[in-house]
Amino acid sequence: MRIALVHMRHAHTGGTERYLNHLARYLAERGDDVTIVCRRHEEAPHAAVRFEVLHNLAIGGAWRMSSFARAVERHVAAADYDLVFGLGKTWTHDVIRLGGGCHQTYLDLAHADTLSAAEKLVGKGRLKQKAALAIEARALAPGAYKRVITNCEMVKRDAMERHAIPAELVEVVYNGVDLERFHPRHRADNPVRREAGFGPDDRVVLFLGTGYGRKGLDRVLDAFPAVMSERSDARLLVVGYDGARPSFERRAAALGLGERARFLGGRRDAEVCFGAADVYALPTRYDPFANATLEALATGLPVVTTDANGASELIGEAEGTVLGRGSDAGDVTAALLHWLDRGSNGAPRALAERHSIESKLEATAAILAAVAGEK
Prior knowledge:
The protein folds into two domains: 2-176 and 356-374, 3-Layer(aba) Sandwich (Rossmann fold); 184-352, Rossmann fold (3-Layer(aba) Sandwich). It is 42% helix and 15% strand.
């Protein structure tokens, strides 16, 4: 196939961006002619992958997003692709993957928790959110696609309800994990654990994610005083990017967490960070499918998350605890103590092994090939 993979941002960090790189490499290695259509890019994931850069002058997030979507429409009309695969925030595609779920659902469940009081007051990003909703409506209008891919049943149900998508045109392909990169071997003599000042006998809860408010770090912090009162060896490690990090650090200090909670900021060695922990906590307010869930499981960690995380559909009682999206600090405390007391077993890794990235790329490629055949 001559295939275009469309996403405004190409990079080597970020869930959708990493999926894009995995898929581009997979398709190129099997002989497809792959072009990544984007606004900017980093190093190609494979020597045979080309870039089509559409970088029009645009000021502000809303204009930039809409301008890129229009540029993609013009480019595809003039090109000769066998198939166009959209990965978000454009409307010109044969197949679209809703890796970020439905935007209105994100706004309803989580967006407010990403804003400061001042940002809420001035309505920060209002135009960008309006543009995102308009693009999604056009992308999922009847006739705009031949197939929709979602990464969980939760998003499939939501998309069908919001956009009247026929069930037979929606395929669920769960996210996959790199089983070699994320592996229990990282738990032996872990350098991040030492960097944090935690000892081999400490019991470490890891929160790892970009966007602390959406992913529920406040819930973990509020739960941790009670966790510490029950277990003197409990420690909290916080990893991830967020401009509001200082306010969360102040909250941790006010709760009396002291040196038992360490903030390491954003890092690119997530596999080593998972290896520093005994339990992974992600009580998210909305995540269509948090990749970190499978990455933690692959490292051998039980996971505490919520049913607002599409990845929770995979987790059973042997691999972690799935809380309701309205759970409070007491619920998080009980779940963390359960897994700190119980310890790890082989079940998390075994579950992850059923969801390798290779198996998901194969499933996705089969859908793309089927749609190209229909065309």
